[in-house]
C-alpha cells in the first residue's frame, strides 16, 4: 500500500514539472492506458498513471474556473454567501464569497441587469447579453462597510471584478499562486451603490467557518475590548486577523509564531474527535 501511495504521489509530482498542460485527447489515451494496466494487474504502474490523470484533470478544472474576459472590470450583481471569517482592518474588510447563482446573463457592461427573487440574473432589456460563468469563489474587499460581515451571511452585492494576477518579484510572495491554491477565480471590491443588501444567514450553509464565527462572537461578547482577545482567538480557532503587528513581532522574537499559527487547528481537531 505504501508503494502504491508513493506511485500515486510520483504521478502528481510529474505533472508539476510540465511547462503546459497536455491536450484533452491525452486524457483519453491515459484512460485507455490505465484500463490496460489494470487488466494486466500492474497495480503500482496503475496508481502512477491515475496520479498523473488526476493532477491534470484537477489543474484543468481550476484553470477553467476563472473570470471571463468579458466581465473584466464590469459591475456585476451577485448573490451568495460569506465563505470564511472576514479579515478586518481600519479601511476595509476582505472575505471569500461563494456566488449562489454563477451564471451572469446580463450585458457584460452591467447595464440593464436585474435580479429576480430566486437569485437568477435576468438579461438586459435589449437582450444582447450572453450567459457568462462566474468563478465558484470570489475574493472581495469592502471599503468602509456600514454593516458587520460574518461567515455564513447571505448578501446581494454589486461588485467590480478582475482576473487573478500577481506580481513577478523574485523571492516575493506569489499572490496569484496562493489564490490558485485557495480556489479563488477572481478578485474585486464591493461597490457602495447600489447599496449592499443583507438577506440573512444561509440556512443551508453549515461549515466549520460558521462554527468558528460563532466562537468568535462568543469570545468578543465575553472579553469585550480585552487586550488578550486577539491572542485567544488565534489560539482557539486559528483566527489571527485581530493580532497586531506588535504582537506578531513579539512572537517572532520569542520563537512562538508557530504556536499561534497551528494551535487553533490542533484544538479544532481535538474538539472534533471528542464530539465524535
TrEMBL record:
Matches recorded under InterPro entries: ComEC_N, Competence_DNA_uptake, DUF4131
Domain of life: Bacteria
Subcellular localization: Cell membrane
Signal peptide: none
Pfam family, any one: DUF4131
Domain (DUF4131): residue spans on this chain: 24-193
One term under GO cellular component: plasma membrane
ComEC/Rec2-related protein domain boundaries: 235-272
Keywords attached to this entry: Cell membrane, Membrane, Transmembrane, Transmembrane helix
UniProt keyword annotation of Transmembrane helix present: yes
Keyword Cell membrane: yes
Transmembrane segments: 41-60
Membrane topology of the entry: Multi-pass membrane protein
Full protein name: Competence protein
Natural source organism: Methylobacter tundripaludum
Taxonomic path: Bacteria, Pseudomonadati, Pseudomonadota, Gammaproteobacteria, Methylococcales
Amino acid at each position: 500500500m505504501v508503494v502504491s501511495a508513493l506511485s500515486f504521489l510520483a504521478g502528481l509530482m510529474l505533472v508539476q514539472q510540465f511547462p503546459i498542460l497536455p491536450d484533452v485527447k491525452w486524457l483519453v489515451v491515459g484512460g485507455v492506458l490505465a484500463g490496460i494496466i489494470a487488466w494486466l494487474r500492474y497495480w503500482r504502474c496503475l496508481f502512477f498513471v491515475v496520479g498523473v490523470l488526476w493532477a491534470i484533470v484537477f489543474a484543468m478544472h481550476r484553470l477553467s474556473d476563472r473570470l471571463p474576459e468579458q466581465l473584466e472590470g464590469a459591475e456585476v450583481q451577485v448573490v451568495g454567501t460569506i465563505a470564511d471569517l472576514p479579515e478586518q482592518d481600519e479601511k476595509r474588510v476582505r472575505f471569500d464569497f461563494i456566488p449562489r447563482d454563477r451564471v451572469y446573463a446580463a450585458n457584460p457592461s452591467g447595464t440593464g441587469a436585474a435580479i429576480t427573487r430566486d437569485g437568477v440574473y435576468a438579461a438586459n432589456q435589449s437582450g444582447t447579453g450572453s450567459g457568462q460563468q462566474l468563478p465558484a469563489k470570489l475574493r472581495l474587499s469592502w471599503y468602509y462597510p456600514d454593516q458587520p460581515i460574518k461567515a455564513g451571511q447571505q448578501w446581494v452585492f454589486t461588485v467590480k471584478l478582475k482576473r487573478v494576477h500577481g506580481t513577478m518579484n523574485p523571492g516575493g510572495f506569489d499572490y496569484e499562486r496562493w489564490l490558485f491554491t485557495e480556489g479563488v477565480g477572481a478578485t474585486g471590491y464591493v461597490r457602495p451603490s447600489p447599496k449592499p443588501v443583507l438577506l440573512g444567514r444561509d440556512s443551508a450553509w453549515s461549515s466549520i467557518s460558521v462554527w468558528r464565527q460563532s466562537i468568535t462572537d462568543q469570545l468578543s461578547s465575553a472579553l469585550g475590548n480585552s487586550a488578550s482577545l486577539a491572542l485567544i482567538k488565534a489560539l482557539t480557532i486559528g483566527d489571527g486577523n485581530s493580532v497586531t503587528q506588535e504582537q506578531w513581532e513579539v512572537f517572532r522574537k520569542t520563537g512562538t509564531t508557530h504556536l499561534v499559527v497551528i494551535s487553533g487547528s490542533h484544538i479544532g481537531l481535538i474538539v472534533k474527535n471528542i464530539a465524535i
